[in-house]
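User: What would this chain look like folded?
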Amino acid sequence: MNKLKIPQNHSGISKTLRLPENIVDDIQHLANFKNLSFNRTVISLLQFSLSNLDEQDRIYLNKLREE
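Assistant: Here's the prediction, encoded as structure tokens.
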């Protein structure tokens, strides 16, 4: 007989954001179009943004990570 195994929580951190309604609508429409969850879409957008930072901002962020 198979036993129920509850997976460990992922390493995500819960945050509450207050976003303008038009941004939420756009993200939700994009998520629906791509058949993704709202959360996964936000994560993808944030990862892209962090990967494409202005050079000065990237240097600053890298310095903070080293501390």
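The chain has three helices and no strands. If you want, I can go into more detail on any region.
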